[in-house]
Amino acid sequence: MAGDQVTSSIPYRRELEFEYGKVAELSARIRRVIAHNPSPFTFHGTGTYILGRGKVAVIDPGPALDEHVQAILEATKGEEITHMLVTHTHNDHSPACRLLRQYCDAKVYGYGPHGAGKLEVGVVVEEGGDMEFAPDVEVRHGDVIEGDDWSAECVYTPGHTSNHICYCLEEEQTLFSGDHIMAWSTSIISPPDGDMKSYMSSLELLLDREDALYWPTHGPSVIETKKHVRAFIEHRRERERQIIECLGRGVRRIREMVPGMYSDLPEFMYPFAGQSVFASVVYLIEMGQVSYEGELGIEAEFTLAK
User: Fold this and answer.
1) Torsion angles phi and psi, residue 25, rounded to 5
2) For position 126, what pLDDT does the model report?
3) Domain locations along the chain
4) Which CATH class is domain 24-232?
5) Of 10, 85, 105, 133, whose CB has the highest number of CB atoms within 10 Å?
6) Domain 236-304: which CATH class?
7) In angstroms, rounded to a whole number, what is the distance separating the alpha carbons of residues 283 and 137?
8) Does residue 192 have a cis bond before it (omega within 30 degrees)?
């Protein structure tokens, strides 16, 4: 699920040649099929990746669309799907696992159910995700999943969701980055499952890695990986500065901040942008820069901390 698209310093890439339902050869070990579920949050749709040849892995099987599952099966005809790797449990990423299981015995790999990473510390997350998802194998940061001609390192990147995990194809130094970082847009961070502090730490984590290329689940590849990550970090810092400026001018409610902060965004997207602003406000509260009275929520009034 993507977010705003308005920061010029981010080296966005949005051009993508594809045909719905048709497999694209991206490298010797990587193929992709794009689901027909375009939206302001998914761009052209969910890109399902196929790793390897013969015995293959599928990354983010996608939404519960029969035609997309059939396209995956057609793309892997004569092969065996042995693994399903899930980056996170939004409904455009994981539900097709259950449909694919009707045609293969592949185990499903993921960090955990929707909300895993928050539920353990007593935070109840919204039911906006795939609440039926339960991986056969729960993976953790640094785990390596191995196939016949591929190996995928698990890179835990909470923030967009608490159970978000990327997978690095070690043979090609290519990171499948889910919705953590994309070429066409930033990501919505929606509390309580979304967490800006975790997201910023997860961005910093990528700067310590040497991944040569990112393939997000939506849109084209990220080719200047570290430059892109640094731009994403600076973008979030700029949002924090905008919030501080708003509060300094007496603008205390998030719904009043959003139109000025997201001036190029269609109005129907304001509630979603507000979620990311709220995530940044919560982060600033944790950092001791912002205060609030009463119950913490997106409709609260905020002030600069004294």
Assistant:
1) -85, 115
2) 77
3) 24-232, 236-304
4) alpha beta
5) 85
6) mainly alpha
7) 32
8) yes
